[in-house]
Sequence to fold (338 residues):
Amino acid sequence: MPELPEVETVARDLARLVGGATICTGRILRTANLSTPDPETFTRAIAGRRIEGVRRRAKWVLVDLEGGLILMVHLRMTGQLVVLPATSTPDPYVRAELQLSDQRVIRFRDVRAFGRLALVARREDGSPSRSLDPSGEAALGDHGPEPLEATFTASRFASDLKGRRGRLKSLLLDQRFIAGLGNIYVDEALWRARLHPLATAAALRAAEAERLHHAIVSLLREAVAARGSSIDDYTGPDGDGEMQERLAVYQRGGAPCMRCGTTIRRVTLGGRGTHYCPRCQPLPRGRRAAGSVGDLKKSSTLRRGPRWSESLEEGSLGATATERAAARRRAVRSGGAR
Ligand SMILES: [Zn+2]
Fold:
């Protein structure tokens, strides 16, 4: 699932590709993907609006439209935003499309269809409202701080951790505590900070909290610079990311730790695959641990199947030029003969 670096990449690509363009018409092909308003109101309200810019908040892409509206997009599992010539043929996974006045089209493509779109008003402070009423409640008001903003300091993070008795991993996944992190970057940040996923958040020592803050910020900066991790179905509007090649533990269960050589463990914690080095990230003793090794269920070290886009043949239905190019690059990288 795309996390902060991937969503940031999508927003930056889109800003460059379609910033300043005008939307002639917009239509929703699968109504279940639209949270608000109804499809007729959506089509009426979006027509003729210029795209002023594209930005990110948490894991949402926010497309700022002329006249105080925001198109919100959450990619969830398999969502993709692609910009194509208007003449290209849509495939069965396109859930919504925006025709631009310059003969291009923005398509929201989503194989598993868990993604979400919403057309809402921009509130006075620039944040999205929950509806087309700009004085409405903030749509993302319950989200935690943005880890790449200057206000996310080590001391603020340390004080936020105080009083949180839960497991470190679950807390970092909670969007109300910190925005934008998901399974990939939480596992990676914990490895970098040498902290066990079951450590009690509130019991971290000052130096550990500072290490974790530094790990989160530096990891996310690096991942944004690398255009995110192209794992499963993620690809940016302007091509794949490369961070997947630099991940130390995520999907490396059974492989040697890059720091100490110990075998990376893959376990299931709260239903989520969790990867860590048992030597670099020891379970703390006593009350400093929010659980025991018994809570970690052994899990297969096997990767899931190939990305569906890896099985695409040249010219196959649904593949965009970007995907075909990305599939070719991956095949070359992995030494495949495709
Ligand atoms: Zn290690």
